[in-house]
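Sequence only, no structure available. Ideas?
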Amino acid sequence: MVEPAQRQATYEDLLQVSPELVAEILAGRLVTHPRPAPKHAVAASVLGSALVGPFHGGHGGPGGWWILDEPELHLDADVLVPDIAGWQLRRMPHLPETAWFETAPDWVCEILSPSTARDDRVVKMPIYAKAGVTYLWLLDPD
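Reply:
I predicted one. C-alpha cells follow.
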C-alpha cells in the first residue's frame, strides 16, 4: 500500500505551536520539543558566557562576533533553533530587524538531549553543513 504524500510544513504551522515548545521545520516536517531542562539550560548558558567575553566582547580574545542563545534560523525552507550560534561581524555587521536570521551563522552548538539527539545529529547536521556552518555538539549533562 502506498502512503499518501505528507504536505510540507509551513511557517504558519510553526506559528500555531504553543509557546511552551521549541518548534522547528526540518526537512519539510514540523518538529517540536519542550524547552530545555534546567541542566541543559545551564550547560548552554555556561558555554555561552565563556564565548561572549572573548568572541562577542573581545575581552581576552579576537572579538568581532555575535554570540546568541537559541536564535531562529531560516536556512532555505528549514527553520532551526540551535542552542548557541555565532556570526562573524564581517559577514553580518548588523542584527536583522526580524525575529529570525536569514544569514547562516558561522558556527552553531547543539547540546544533545536524549529527546533531541537524533534530529540534532541526523537531520540538522546536514542542513547546517549545506549552509556552510561549522557544527559542534555537546552531550547533555543529564
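The chain has a mean pLDDT of 92.
Hope that gets you unstuck.
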